[in-house]
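Researcher: Good morning. I'm working through a list of sequences from a screen, and I'd like to move beyond sequence-only analysis. For each chain I'm collecting a predicted structure so we can compare shapes side by side. This is the next one on the list. No need for commentary yet; just the structure.
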Amino acid sequence: MKNNIKSGEIFIWFTGMGLAVSLIMISGLLLLILLNGKDYFWPFQLNEIRLNDGRKVLGEVVKEELIPIHNLPDSLKNKGLKRTQLKIGNRDIYGFDFQWIDERNIESINYPSDAVRIERTEFGNFYGFIKELQIDDKIIKPDNPDFFDKVKQSVDKISSYRNEIKKIEKSDIGEVNYNIEKLRLEIKKIEYKHKKNEKSQKLIADLERSIETENEKYDALKHKVDSIREKANSYSIYCEDISGRPKTISLLNVIRFYKPNEMNFSDKIGFMFTKIIEFIFDEPRESNTEGGVFPAIFGTVMMVLIMSLFTVPFGVLAALYLREYAKQGTLVRLVRIAVNNLAGVPSIVFGVFGLGFFIYFIGGTIDNIFYPERLPSPTWGTGGILWASLTLSLLTMPVVIVATEEALTQIPRGMREAALALGATKWQVTRRIIIPAAMPGILTGLILAMARAAGEVAPLMITGVVKLAPTLPFDSYFPFFHLDRKFMHLGFHIYDVGFQSPNIEAALPMVFTTTLLLIIIVVLLNITAMIIRARLRKKYKTSAF
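Model: Good morning. Structure tokens for this chain:
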């Protein structure tokens, strides 16, 4: 034992054990997230539970657990009893989504084949039975042999109507609103910069006529949307819950319906892939607890890329100056200590600095100089994706500086001296030898910076992130990238759904699923940087060492 301690072998074993424990903990965490997130995609059976008092409950089994012993009578404490939590949906009827059922109260459990789960645009899921399909004044009953096929065809038809309405509202009406706002700002600009005279009044009159023309376009498009909506509202389904309570649902509010108790394994796999595609590419609905997270994905990736564009150049330049150009002494050592200390500053402090310096000072100054006619409504003097990215750049800058300095110290001094001896200038040595050889280390710093920035939430909450962004920071209008806009972020989305949602328990699957997606995005960004780093390391291996 003494020999092992003296030789250091025991510490190697402890290091290996620490690594193994870390890997087990990480794997367990990912498995926990995966198991809890799958509920969002997988179609579970609908259980019809008949209670001893004659009542019936229909829903999905969410979890089962033992009833705490102190809640049981003395006669049952040794036996132990379970209780089951059901997701019963029908929030507009019951006022709640979940119900606990004691196994002592259960008489029987059935799985009705005609029970349907209807995903709606509001009020969550409906669990029950479809009794009629209503198309204008025509009523189709379940005794029709093609009843459910007709319902499915109607749902698909109304879904195309809903997509058409969405396209008109976002594209055509969105363009009209954009033009009206642009013209309105032009009027304010003229009124601010020019005194009232005949020329300015004529310009304003022309702009007001253009606004009237755009308003006429808006009215025509609104009439078109109303006619499509009226046509879609003529399709509805009459349903009943497990207790026979009626509910008429317009198909315009139905995303999809299916009978999970009739689905085989391959059907469930296909349904799961459909839900995954919806989750990645659709927009949120139902207070972000349903639908997709595409705006949050776009905002997260765009913010990380913008942050990287600022972090890497300035971080590398700072490290090059400290290592290659600055005269080593007390001042440089103090700067290095300051850089290292910045890495330990809480992220919310950077957020407050970003709010004060970037938003209020720089953004407010830009508004006063370039957009005075829009005040007091701020353009740049409020949170946006640019200010959030710059704040995270400051947050991650120390990581890039330290990693780059470490890479620079690994380059043999002889390479510098040989290049200088051959007549190269200091800048030529830096640009053609030092930076390429240090590139793998620089990318290591970038990987660490991206991993930290993608998961930060606190500084973003006060520099531009929002619960729901009506428009993306990128669109078809010049200048295409609107860096002054607010944005959505996966990390804040997790916080908002998990802790600020009006129905937190129903939102838990979305929380775990979004968490898994954020991890996957961070891993993909890191893998991309690692591949580039490996190729550069292979390319410059012979020249650098």
